[in-house]
Amino acid sequence: xxKETNVERQAAHQEAIxxxxxxLANVSKSIANDPHRLHYHFMPPVNWMNxxxxxxxxxxxxxxxYQHNPYSPKWGPMHWGHxxxxxxxxWEHLPIALAPSEWYDKGTLDSHGxxxxxxxxxxxxxxxxxxxxxxxxxxxxxxxxxxxxxxxHFEKYEGNPVIxxxxxxxxxxxxxxxxxxxxxxxYMVVGSGKNGNGKIHLYRSANLKSWMYMGVAAESDxxxxxxxxxxxxxxxxxxxxxxxSPMNISARNMYFTGEMNYETGKFDYHYxxxxxxxxxxxxxxxxxxxxxxxxxxxxxxxxxxxxITEAPNRGWLGAMTIxxxxxxxxxGKLYMRPVEELKLLREMYYALGSHTIESGQISxxxxxxxxxxxxxxxxxxxxxxxxxxKLRCSDDGKEETVVTYRVEDRQLLMKRDYxxxxxxxxxxxxxxxxxxxxxxxxxxxxxxxxxxxxEGERVITNRIxxxxxxxxxxxxxxxxxxxxxxxxxxxxxxxxxxxxxxxx
Length: 504
Fold this sequence. Notes:
- The protein is mainly beta.
- It has helices at 3-24, 29-32, 306-314, and strands spanning 47-58, 61-69, 79-85, 92-98, 113-122, 125-135, 139-148, 155-156, 174-182, 185-194, 197-205, 212-219, 228-236, 239-246, 254-261, 266-273, 282-288, 294-299, 316-317, 324-328, 334-338, 346-357, 360-363, 372-380, 386-393, 400-406, 411-418, 426-430, 437-445, 448-453, 458-463, 472-478, 482-491.
- The strands form seven sheets. A six-stranded antiparallel β-sheet has the order 22-33-24-29-30-31, with no helix packed on it. A six-stranded antiparallel β-sheet has the order 23-32-25-26-27-28, with no helix packed on it.
- The radius of gyration is 23 Å and the shape is globular.
């Protein structure tokens, strides 16, 4: 590889980035004024966004990269969009970080691109590790790196791909590298699948460029999906956790609790569960910040949703969940809780009082909003059948998103049957409430609901699309006495009044 050739390749990459940035420069007024544009969630200024990539704390700031098509609100040639934040709340859009420009990430079909991956701080050099995806006569997926001294402008490594072939023949997928450092070595897990079993492959490196294959770190037993996307393996306290997005099963996200043996390269798990029981939670990724918190964000959307089919009319698609701190619970459980910084969003406080219902429902008067945080402590007697909260209600009762607890079944549900678009989907999470009480911490935005139950033991995330004026709040009960204690805060719009921040 001559120096001149490398210069030419970097110039071609920069030209591809410039082209993508130009496509993002003109945000139409119709997009900025879309009533379903979120107020405090991260989303692209225009066009398509999916998986979070490269979540990293770098030089005192949080960096978020993401799968992005700057040319269309449809999925297509993948770039890496980029933003940063000092507080996990207010985000600044930055220029595109990666664009397809090389033989290993640019093909003739729209499915090519710089696919998902991760980021690390390599002694002050911000390094992106991603999957180059080309799909011409056959699918070719390789692992590649790009580096930056300033955290904004990235150069692809001239020795790419750093892993040119999957370790197994006839595997299904070989993508989404997640890299971390343990002692003095870098480790990488890559998602894959074979013979109906999802699995992750493990690699080790001293310099991020030369990688040694260590084997299959973990795999399905035939019940956890046939391909494991977006793996993330990390330690909390005395246990290790593996997060995956399994394909072709009903569970859209999962985590496994176990022990990682760095000598054998094996992750032995003994507990598994879903991270989030909602429909719109996928491709979760974590970072560790300067406070040693393990923070997670995920794509707040789902493949096959009605929003994707309507995206061309809206001109944009995709958002991230609010940032969540992961907490190790008892028995191998992972809890998720909203990060403390989200309190910066609070504006008006509403003490909504204490309300006792035997059967029926009541409206919470004096509170109407499309963007708010709600806390509820609910006590119920043993004879109660069901109770809950109705969010984003219309005055005529035709639109509502229902959060309900079924006492006998010990289940927490979110019903979206009448949320505005007729999604006809109910999310169901198991939840034990042994002391006759439940705590709900709910974040509502213009087109989303995120529920954290009992200090984050169970979480449900869904997108909703109510009509204008569907901003009421009601509570209900069936079969016995239920006491609700409620408080709420309206939350500010981080993007301003109808105008998105411009790309730097």
